[in-house]
Structure formats: structure tokens, C-alpha cells
Amino acid sequence: MLNYRKGNLFIENVSFESLAKKFGTPLYVYSRAGLINNFTVFDDALSSVPHIVCYAVKANSNFSILKVLSKNGAGADITSGGELYRSLRAGFPSKKIVYAGIGKTREEISYALRENILIFNVESLEELSSINEVATRLKKKAKIAFRINPNVDPDTHHYITTGKKGGKFGIPYSQAISAYKMAKKMSSISVEGIHCHIGSQIVEAAPFKLAAQRINVLFEKLSNIGIHLNYINLGGGLGIRYDRENPPTPYDLTKAVIPIFKNFSGTFIFEPGRYIVGNAGFLLVKVIYRKQSGGKNFLIVDGGMNDLIRPTLYDAYHEIIPVKKSLQPKIKVDVVGPICETGDFLGKERLLPWVPQDGLLVVNCAGAYGYAMSSQTEKILLHLMI
Ligand code: LLP
Q1: How many separate helices (H) and strands (E) can be counted in the chain?
Q2: Ligand 1: residues whose CB is within 6 Å?
Q3: Cβ neighbours of 31 (radius 10 Å)
Q4: Choosing from 54, 196, 340, 365, which is the catalytic residue?
Q5: Span 165-197, pLDDT tens digits
Q6: In ligand 1, which atom is closest to the CA atom of 201?
Q7: Which of 168, 271, 276, 375 to mutate for ligand 1's pocket (most ligand atoms within 8 Å of CB)?
Q8: In the chain, is it the N or the C terminus that has fewer CB atoms within a 10 Å radius of its CB?
Q9: Whose CA is nearest to atom 20 of ligand 1?
Q10: Distance from the alpha carbon of residue 32 to the mean position of ligand 1, in angstroms
């Protein structure tokens, strides 16, 4: 996706310099080819079984990205009424939309039922009752899967660990069978599947495998008591290479988990977000000033933690690349934003040329949870004074 031509950094056939000139900075830039390629690799990895790859819209709900993915056959994994609205508008068929999230409101449930989405991933018994109630009122049958917490440690940042005992997500493993029995008795619920999502930026196959084994045990137990499932949804979470990680490929992942489900002949669902959009997105920023202070070198750029919060929130590493190749020796610099907070940085102690004022830098692999977690308060937030 990225390449230098005559010392200038390009994305595909477009120079970042020309993009900065035309659109200004800070600027998120995405590669359509990168998106399609990532989706295709994931989809192909499942070609031997019936499946739907539902893109996790939360990773980046940019409308153009959604349109590219829906056009190429992806489904959508949503977590709010807003995401449902955007997904439908972007062309995702409702039959390929799955809805997770621990706090679905009755209004959102009603909207999703009226749009006939594929399945609700139910995260609590109270939510199940609400779905049943709303569906009864609408004279609909709600198709559900339970999101099960398999108590697996995915060995990732604790903020994005979601399948360990004691977390807020899913139905505790030990309560799963009784939840299914309860759902089976509800008049407006159709029990269709099982779901789990154990975390994000997971760089080993082993936790996925362990979770799949535990889900399979439940699947078998349910079959034995006459509860047959049509969908097994193994969530998202596949990590990407930001630095020196060596994550499994989608093929490695599916090869590790699919064979575990020996007696399942229905449809597999996966919900990758980061894998699809992470390395297809870049944040282009411009150096405003340089300074040296306390023995340190600072490049002060126009993109900060409000544009990309991952470095300060998770101590996440994003490679920073100068747009102009420089023959100057590299020095250790902190790349910091303009926000009035010491936590506002994009990268610390990076070996970079002493890029001059107005020089451009590209923050790599910024497609997932970059724009989605950004805040442009002056542009979009309404202030209400009463
Ligand atoms: N499915 C469910 C139910 C999820 O909660 C998530 C992500 C995904 C799928 C997609 O996971 P992925 O394939 O993208 O790992 N803001 C954090 C990541 C939060 C992930 C939340 N859930 C970050 O910047 O690292």
C-alpha cells in the first residue's frame, strides 16, 4: 500500500503530499485496495464452510468504507441503532447484520426487529426478556444467539479483554445452558446460535482455539437436549502487525478453530474489525513546530489524541513514517499533538529525521479504532446551556 517514489511517500498511486495540499491535515486516508484485499483474504479463509464475514462496524464506521465492504459481500456486526442505520444505508443486507452489545435499548431492539436483522447476540437475561417483549408487541419472532463468556484469557491489553470471568460481556459460561432453556420457552424468541468474542488484537491462535473448544462443548450439550443451532459466531479479535507482532493469518485462525466443530453443519460467522480496516488506514499529520526541552526532541504535529487516542489509551504502538525520505541522520524524537495534556502523543522515542516545520508524517495502521474513537468537539458536539 505504501511506497516511496523519488523520495516521496505514496499510498497506491497518490502522494501524501498532494493529499495534504488538497485536503489539509490532519487527514485520515484509506486504501480501497487494502480494504478489499483484507476482506477477501478473510472470506477466502472460510471458503470450505458456509459462512458470513460480518465486518465489525465499530472499528470504523466511515460511510465509504462501509460501502466498499458491503459491495464486496461483507455482512455487518453492529452495536447500536446508529450503526444499524449507517449499515443499512451503506447497502448491507439486513439478512447479514448481527447485533451485539450489552446495552441495547428497547428502541434499538424494535428498530432492528423491524429491519429483520439476522440475529441478536444476547448478553444478559434481562436483555432476552426485553427482546421477547418488544418482538411480541411487534408480532415478530426475534432470532437470537447468546454471547457466551468462555473465560479465556486472550493475552491482550486488559481494556480490550472481553471473554474472561468477571468481565461485563456475555452470559457466564456456567449459566449458558439454563439461559438457552429459558429462551426456548419464550414465545417470540427463536434460538438460532451461539456467539463469543474474547477480545481484540489477539496475536496467538491458542486463545481462539480454547474458546472454540469451550463453545463446542456447549454446542454438543445443547444438541443433546434437543436445542439445535444454525449459527456459530466466533467473533472478531484477530490481531494485526503494528510493530513486531506475528499474528496468525485468517487462514491459520480458521484452520485452528473450524475443525473443532465436528458435528456442526450450519453457518459460521466471524466479526473481524481491525483485521479488515487496521492496516488499510493512515493518519497524515503535519509538523507545526519543533523544540528541544529537558534533553528531549519534540515534533509538535497537528494531529493529537483527539484524532488517534490509541497511543495514550492503550500505550499502543503505531509506526510513524516521514513523507519525505531524508538523508539526515535519525534522532530520537517524541511526536506529540497540540492538546493541552502531557498524555497527548502519537509516538515516543522514535528514530526519525528532524522533520522541518510543515513537514509531513504518516501514522501507520490507523484504520481501526482511529477515526471511530476520535472527537472533533468543535465540529460536531452540541452544547446545551439551560
Ligand atoms: N465483535 C465484538 C462483539 C466486538 O466487541 C468487537 C470489538 C469485534 C467483534 C471486533 O474486534 P476486532 O476484530 O476489531 O478486534 N478500541 C480498541 C478495540 C476495541 C474492540 C472492541 N470490540 C482498540 O483500539 O484497540
Answers
A1: 12, 19
A2: 56, 58-59, 77, 100, 160, 197, 200-201, 235-238, 271-275, 310, 314, 368-369, 373
A3: 20
A4: 340
A5: 778 889 999 999 999 999 999 999 999 999 999
A6: 15
A7: 271
A8: C
A9: 200
A10: 21
The answer for residues whose C-beta is within 8 angstroms of residue 315's C-beta and 6 or more apart is: 157
Measured in angstroms, how far is the CA atom of residue 290 from the centroid of ligand 1? 35
- Is residue 164 very low, low, confident or very high in pLDDT (cuts 50, 70, 90)? confident
93-148 confidence digits (pLDDT tens): 999 999 999 999 999 999 999 999 999 999 999 999 999 999 999 999 999 999 99
User: Which triple of cell numbers denotes residue 126?
Assistant: 434481562
Confidence (pLDDT) at 299: 98
Q: Kindly state the cell numbers that stand for 333.
A: 524524537
Report residue 42: phi and psi, to 5°.
Answer: -65, -45
- Tell the residue number behind the cell numbers 447500536, with chain if given: 80
217: Cβ contacts below 8 Å, ≥ 6 apart: none
CA distance 348 to 381: 30
Centre of ligand 1 from the C-alpha of residue 152, in Å: 16
Q: Model's pTM, two decimal places?
A: 0.96
Backbone angles phi, psi at 14, to 5 degrees: -120, 130
- CA count, 13 A, side-chain hemisphere, 10: 9
Q: Which long-range contacts link 108-113 to residues 24+ away (Cβ below 8 Å)?
A: 108/80, 108/81, 108/84, 109/134, 109/135, 109/142, 110/134, 110/137, 110/138, 111/81, 111/84, 111/85, 112/81, 112/84, 113/138, 113/140, 113/142
Per-residue pLDDT, 386: 56
Element (H, E) at 136: helix 125-138
pLDDT confidence bin for 379, thresholds 50/70/90: very low
Separation CA 346–CA 357 (nearest Å): 17
Q: Indicate the pLDDT class of residue 2, thresholds 50, 70 and 90.
A: very high
- Whether 54 sits among the annotated catalytic residues: the reply is no
